[in-house]
Amino acid sequence: MISELEAQLEYERVRREKLERQLDEYRAKTSHLKECLEKLPLTPTISGEGEAASDLGKEKKKMKKKPPGSPGGVFVRRY
Question: Where is the stretch described as Disordered (predicted)?
Answer without folding.
Answer: 45-79
